[in-house]
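Our platform keeps sequence and structure together, in a single record for each protein. Because each token names a local backbone shape, the row as a whole describes the fold. One such record is reproduced below, unchanged from the form in which we store it:
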Amino acid sequence: MEVYKNGNFSEPAVRIYAKFPRKSKNKQDAPIFENGRFDACELCPLNPNVHPAESPQYLFAWQNAAKMSDEDCNGTVYVYDLKAESFERSKFMIQCHQGQEIQVKVNCKGYAALIWSQNMSDTSGKSYYGEHNLQYVQIFGGRDRQHVPVFQNMINDVAWVDSGERFIVIAGNQPAVATLYDKDCNALFEFGKRYRNTIRVCPFSQLLLIGGFGNLKGEIDFWSLDTLEQVGKTRSDCAIGIEWAPDGKHLMTSVLYERVKVDNQINIFNGCGKKLLNPPRAFNELISAQWQPYPQGVFPKPQISAMQQAAAEEEAKRPKRTFQMPAQNNSAFSQMMRQQMGGAGNEGPRRLDVNDKKNYKEMGNSQAATAKDKV
């Protein structure tokens, strides 16, 4: 791996070779290093609390378990300081039990990183989607490391709020639980237990989209991150692309040809769910759809109340529809299907109290102990 600095591309400033320790049957033997390769890397932002010249320059590079030797079933994330004198060894490493796929999500201020790892097979036999693990690692914020609780060994999505002060995790089988954490990994709020698997945060870090796409129905909830109240909802069937506009007032969803060969289209909504493109813009083949990027500071912070009022006025104009099941179709199966499709049993949003936060910590510590035994 080669790193170039200061606009000089004629010669790399740093070369890092992928040499990994190979386990020996005898623990007293000196470690033997073998050549390998990194599967991906991620640069960490500079420490905003010090001058850029004084900040460490951290690089995350990792190797997935599926690409490692047969003796080792763990993925590993290696963290290098690009200002160090030697790169024979990383500054520190993070072990990921059976991490066949690893994602590193670094806070925009370099305060902490989330290490999301998963394997393709669940050793407990309870899940078709394998096992997931999420580790929280402080970088410039300190040296704290802990496991973020993962319900039913399943993570659907993870995202930092753009301000870097908080992050959201959707965990568990469907219906799944979406939880808000602060930057120190303390659980703050649950957005409810619903059929959701996607997180998008607006550029101003004030509006949050939590949606259910893919094999779900395309339902979308909009939340205010300032008040932690739901400010709108809508639906976008079969959407593949979901993007906030740079102005923080508009959302675009798109049905793309790479995944869906029919009904390719784009929909535009305001930040609280009002449909602004009716009917949707249709295409024979839609390959990609994206907003024009703009630098920060061009658009003012939008007013949520105005968008919420516009969405409410549109909802009030819609005719109310009711559907009554035939009286003769009242079997146990029919009742169960009506409950599931109607969202019955979904747990509502709630602020977490002291006992809830304690339970989150205990669950994370328990999962950390289990992962440590397996590594």
About this structure: The mean pLDDT is 85.
